[in-house]
Amino acid sequence: MKVAIVHDYLKEYGGAERVLKTLTEMYPTAPIYTAFRVKGSTADKAFTGKKIIESKLSSFLKVGKLYSPLRFLIPTIWGSFDLSEYDLVITSCSWYITRGFKVGKNTKVVSYCHTPPRWLYGFQTSVGFTRLWPVKIYAAIVGHFMRLYDFKTAQEIPNWIANSKNVAGRIKKFYKKNSTVIYPPVEVKKIMNATRSIEKKDFYLIVSRLVGAKGIEVAVEAAEKLGINLKIVGEAHGFSDVEKRIKNTNKGKVELLGYISDEEKFKLMAQAKAFIALAKDEDFGMTAVEAQAAGTPVIAYNGGGFKESVIEGKTGVLINEISTKSLKTAIGKIKKTKWNKKTLITNAKRFSKEVFIGEIKRYINPILPTRF
User: Fold this and answer.
1) Between these two residues, 185 and 215, which has the higher pLDDT value?
2) CB 211 within 8 A of CB 316
3) Stretch 15-26: mean pLDDT, rounded?
4) Cβ-contact 126, 216 below 8 angstroms
5) How far is CA 162 from the centre of its chain?
6) 235 in Cβ contact with 164 (< 8 Å)
7) Is residue 247 domain-shared with residue 162, that is, in the same domain?
């Protein structure tokens, strides 16, 4: 069976790339088709040794950050790929749409959707690039035609997998398509083995790309006002200036650690008093599950995918408002509650890598031709 995997692009290594990583382990000979790859980036390093095929426009897209303003080229980018020789094509799609390529009449296409593009449907985006009116006009014009393209190409895909119930609702709303929820793969066993004998320390932790729409700056402000130590793991993304603003306002309670290895991240998760995740309407949120696998409770915004992974009072505290006041209350609950590590890990196992692989196979095998 000839399998191809299609992914937005390879630059930062985040949740979508962790899903991609597991798919490449399931189908080790499958090439990765992508809009572009940035050599030496965290995502590029994660797929060393894999056959990666970039679009013909890749050289333009990765000049500076042109992949964002040149998003009107998305139909041309994906339309340049001919995947008709493959029996199965799996797309890993989010904000770059990742559809519209050519396939054969017998090719089975499965879309694993992290989310319909947030910038197309009014969801808060990580950069907020439309603050300037010329960009706002440009985005409105491009967005109109991209929504038409997004809907049209979505109708061509018969098989949809959503990474959460939250995203399944968006797929139904914007594409009029039903989908099966298969949560992203979390390395629960690996995390458990790496954090067995680690003791707690006096700090709270955030792991996130340093972008807007994640509530990071509110957490930084709260840390300074409440006098708590906060460590932040993650790298900057796109045109975001969040990292710069944090550095300008930091008074010593916040430590920016940048990109670190998984092993270091898991250790910090296990040491933290609590993990903080404040993104509004998060698609799913793998790091919140990773923290639970490390035996650490989560303070999360009561919305999006966090409502599916965090159990109030048992594996964390859900807050209805992203503010210093609500964080102060949540931290008080964290300190007063005796958290059961076994309960935290048991909940995390619902989202394990092994569960993901099993559910993907059960989904894909019945749709393949009988010769496979």
Assistant:
1) 185
2) no
3) 97
4) no
5) 12
6) no
7) no
